[in-house]
Design brief:
globular, 8-stranded mixed beta sheet, 244 residues, alpha/beta
Length: 244
Amino acid sequence: MQKIISYPISVIYYLFFGLTLLVFHPIQWVCFNVFGYHAHKVSVDYLNFFLLRCTNILGTTYKFENIESIPKNVPLIFVSNHQSMYDIIAMIWFFRRFHCKFVSKKELGSGIPSVSFNLRHGGSVLIDRKDPKQAIPAIKGLGEYIEVNNRSAVIFPEGTRSKTGKPKEFAQSGLKILCKYAPSAYVVPVSINNSWKVVKYGFFPLGLGNRLTFVVHKPIAVKDYEFSELMEITEKAVVQGIKI
C-alpha cells in the first residue's frame, strides 16, 4: 500500500526537487562569479536546505547526534558509510560550518543543474574510478586544501552506496592520502542509518516516512595514530553505529 501511495507523492517531490535545482543554478553562478567563494558557499548551503525541505514531502526527517563533539577551526576528514544521495544533502546543511568538500565520481561533474556546478567550483574533487592514478593527485590536492584552510573533506570508503544498509568493506587508499597531506586533521567517523530506505524501490517511487540518523563518533587526531590503527578504529566506529 505504501508503494502505491508513494507514486503520486514522488511525482510532487521530484517537481519541487527539480525546480529547486533549476532556481539555484543561476544563483550559484552569480554568487561564484560576482561575489566569490563565501557567497557561493552560502548559496550551496541554502540550496541543500531547500532540498531537505523537499524531502519532507516524502515524510523524511533527520536527526544528527553529537555534532557538538566535532572540533572547530581545524582540518576535518568525515568518514562515513554511504546509503544514498540524501547522505550528502543532509551533511552539507547540518555540517555547513565545516565547509564540507566531497570526493565524487567524475560523472556527477556535468549534466546536473546546481549539483555539477558546485562539484566543479566549490572545492570538491572529481575522480575517475576506472583510473586510480588520476585519483591520487586529486585527493592529495584536497588534503592540502583542507590543511591550509581548516576545512573538511568527506569520504565514503565503501566506494559506492549500500542498497540494503549493510556496510561494505572500507577501502583505505583515499583516506590514507588525505591523512598524509592533512597531518593536523581530525578524522570524524559518522554512521548513517535509514538513508537507503528512501530509495529502497529505486529512484521511483521513493520510500515514505523515513527518519535518517547521523551519529557522529569521537574525533581522532591523525597525528596520534599510525594509519593502520586509525583506519581500524574508524571503520569499527562507523560499522558499529549502523543498525540493520
